[in-house]
Amino acid sequence: VPTAEEIARQVATLLPSPGLPTAAPSEEEIEAAQAALRATYLKPHFALVPSFLGDVPLSVSEVQCQLMLLEQVEVQQKQEEEEERKKRGEDHVQARQKGLTLRRTPVKIDALFKPRSQGAEGPQKQVQRALLTGEAGMGKTTLTKQLAHAWAQGTWGEEFKALYVLPVRALQQR
């Protein structure tokens, strides 16, 4: 896993820094940063994750992760529930929170950043970011390594100039 300093250097190559001239990086600088990232993600130790059944680590290409897209959706409230809410003295915010639920939809890795609508009738928008959440041991690190490894191989994420793996656990330990 790259250190925080290595990641910071690679990010600095591709992103302008506040207070500094905003000259765009040259094509050579971009290619060098991409090559450094790809080399990091293709290293054998990066592509290994702990095995559930033994001491021998597995390659991320041998592990399958099932992604679930969680979306907040509004549940239609019946008129009776609205009248009950008013009787109980609940405010609009409390009622709104109760009227939201999470919809779980399986999503394939290839479709993770494809345009999607935020509502049933809303226009489709490009996904700008994804937040991985879950309990310890649920596969967040494994999925992240899978995506980085596939990006480095050129088999996923060709629309991204760079993919940064930020090891939050390592940052928290500092």
Key structural traits:
single chain, 174 residues, alpha+beta, two-stranded antiparallel ribbon, 6 strands, 36% helix
How do you describe this structure in short?
This protein is 36% helix and 14% strand. The chain is of the alpha+beta class and 174 residues long. The radius of gyration is 21 Å and the shape is extended.
Question: How would you sum up this structure, described in words?
Answer:
A hairpin with a 6-residue loop joins strand 5 (116-117) and strand 6 (124-125). With 174 residues, this protein is of the alpha+beta class. The two termini are 15 Å apart. Helix 1 (4-14) packs antiparallel against helix 2 and helix 2 crosses helix 5. The protein has helices at 4-14, 27-42, 79-88, 92-98, 140-153, 168-172; strands at residues 48-49, 58-59, 67-74, 100-107, 116-117, 124-125. It is built from six helices and six strands; from the N terminus they run H-H-E-E-E-H-H-E-E-E-H-H. It is extended and about 65 Å long. It has a two-stranded antiparallel ribbon.
